[in-house]
Design a protein that fits this description.
- With 216 residues, the chain is an alpha/beta fold.
- The protein has a domain of 147 residues: Glutaredoxin (3-Layer(aba) Sandwich), CATH 3.40.30.10.
- 34% of the residues lie in helices and 16% in strands.
- It has seven helices and nine strands.
- The chain has a five-stranded mixed beta sheet with strand order 5-4-3-8-9, covered by helices on one side. Strands 1-2 form a two-stranded antiparallel ribbon. A two-stranded antiparallel sheet has the order 6-7.
- A hairpin with a 5-residue loop joins strand 8 and strand 9.
- The protein starts with 18 loop residues before the first strand and ends with a helix.
Length: 216
């Protein structure tokens, strides 16, 4: 059960536009900038407290070049205040086009699910084992896996990260391919097949296959 009663934005629907502060300090990040010009791969992630999101951002740094070769631009929404993101990316530079959305307004516009954090959800969090991208020696319960990956990455939450986590948890993440006319053509919603998918990311092969199938 989720707090969003409507299904997520799906292929065939027009992607909701948005305007967000650019983390690099340039003009705002908006889908309208790409309308009529190029398709867009859009990743809706959480704040930097999320170890799976940090790793996905790093991975997208490589995927972005492959998508650009197919004529597709990449936009990533990071759910943290611009100043917190700028501090993080000062030490971990990224070439991605990044927009800051601490209030999750974009997630809401795309109707990305947020599970109801009740007793059943937390019980599942303790029993379901995950190991996204095989980053760990073995699968672990969700929260243990998140902590272990943060330890591997040497990341310690800042006060801003902690505040983001308290506001956002347990919001899910999503990725979309949007054609040059602004229509969603492919979507990948986290945990669509259950909690065991938490933290997973579509392979480059899957993303690129979907990109090549976009209307030209």
């Amino acid at each position: 059960m989720t707090t969003e009663t409507r299904p997520p934005v799906a292929p065939g629907e027009v992607a909701p536009d948005f305007s967000l502060p650019a983390i690099d300090g340039s003009k705002d990040v908006t889908l309208a900038d790409y309308r009529g010009k190029s398709p867009v791969f859009l990743a809706l992630l959480l704040g930097l407290w999320c170890p799976f999101c940090r790793r996905q951002i790093a991975r997208l740094g490589t995927t972005e070049a492959k998508l650009k070769a197919e004529g597709v631009e990449t936009v990533c929404v990071v759910a943290t205040p611009p100043e917190n993101a700028r501090l993080y990316f000062k030490f971990r530079p990224s070439k991605l086009r990044l927009g800051a959305d601490p209030g999750l307004t974009t997630h809401r516009a795309f109707r990305v699910p947020k599970p109801d954090a009740g007793p059943e959800f937390f019980k599942a969090m303790e029993s379901v084992l995950i190991n996204p991208e095989s980053a760990l020696p073995k699968p672990l319960p969700v929260m243990e896996a998140a902590g272990a990956i943060s330890k591997l990455d040497g990341h310690v939450n800042s006060a801003a990260d902690q505040a983001d986590m308290e506001r956002q948890f347990p919001q899910l993440k999503a990725r979309y391919l949007i054609d040059r006319d602004g229509v969603v053509r492919w979507a990948s919603i986290e945990c669509a097949n259950g909690l065991a998918d938490l933290g997973s990311f579509p392979s480059d092969e899957e993303i690129l296959a979907a990109a090549r199938a976009l209307p030209r």
